[in-house]
Amino acid sequence: MVATPLTKTLRCVVAAGTVLAMTAACGGGDSDSGSDSKGASAELTGRGPITLVQGKDTSGNVQKQVDAWNAQHPNEKVRLIELPEEADAQRQQMVQNAQAKSDAYTVLNLDVVWTAEFAANRWITPLPQEQFDMSKFLQPTIKTGQYRGRLFAVPWKTDAGLLYYRTDLVKKAGASGPPKTWDEMKQICDKVAKDGVGCYGGQFEKYEGLTVNFSEAVHSAGGSVVDDQGKPQVNTPQAKQGLDFLAEGFKSGFIPKEAITYKEEEGRRAFEKGKLVFLRQWPYQYALSKKSDVKDKFDVAPLPGPNGPGAPTLGGHNLAISAFAKNKATALDFIKYLTAPEQERANMLATSEAPTLTELYDDAELKEKYPYLDVLKESLLKAKARPEAVRYGDFTKAIQENAYAALTGTKSTDQALADMQAELGKLTQQ
Ligand code: GLC
Question: Under the cellular component aspect of Gene Ontology, which terms does the record hold (predicted)?
Answer without folding.
Answer: ATP-binding cassette (ABC) transporter complex, substrate-binding subunit-containing
